[in-house]
Amino acid sequence: MLADYGFMTLRVSSDWQSADFIAQHVDGVSFLKVQLKGSFAIDKDYEGKDLYICFPDRPFPGRSTWFLCLHDMLVSQARSCTNICNTDSWITHGTYRAAKPPASLVPFLDRFALQEIEASGDVL
């Protein structure tokens, strides 16, 4: 799906700088370090690393909306509109995971939804 947005992905081994893969844009300037998750997740270990989180809106196979969001921006929004950062999971373990994003975060996440781009037949 990222290829439709002009990104080539490069898998990295050993979670290099916490990234599972690098997304390089065809402009040759934009590089995104991406942590891929199977569901909504934030982690204190990812803070301050200019890392993007990519996850589906539901953790089961089938048609899902995928989100690609800067992790620190997501944590900031979670602090302002959810109780996530006051949970034992976040405070004690430094992580929070859920099967799907909290409803109060969905309006924020909508702008980070990756949409499937229909093939137009045009050659670039």
Keywords:
two-stranded antiparallel sheet, 17% helix
Textual characterization of the structure:
The protein has helices at 71-81, 88-93, 106-109; strands spanning 7-11, 21-25, 31-36, 40-43, 51-56, 66-70, 95-98, 113-114. With 124 residues, it is of the alpha+beta class. The chain has a six-stranded mixed beta sheet with strand order 1-2-3-5-6-8. Strand 2 (21-25) and strand 3 form a beta hairpin. It starts with 6 loop residues before the first strand and ends in a 10-residue tail after the last strand. The mean pLDDT is 88.
What's the short version?
The chain has 124 residues and is α+β, with helices and mostly antiparallel strands. The chain contains three helices and eight strands; from the N terminus they run E-E-E-E-E-E-H-H-E-H-E.
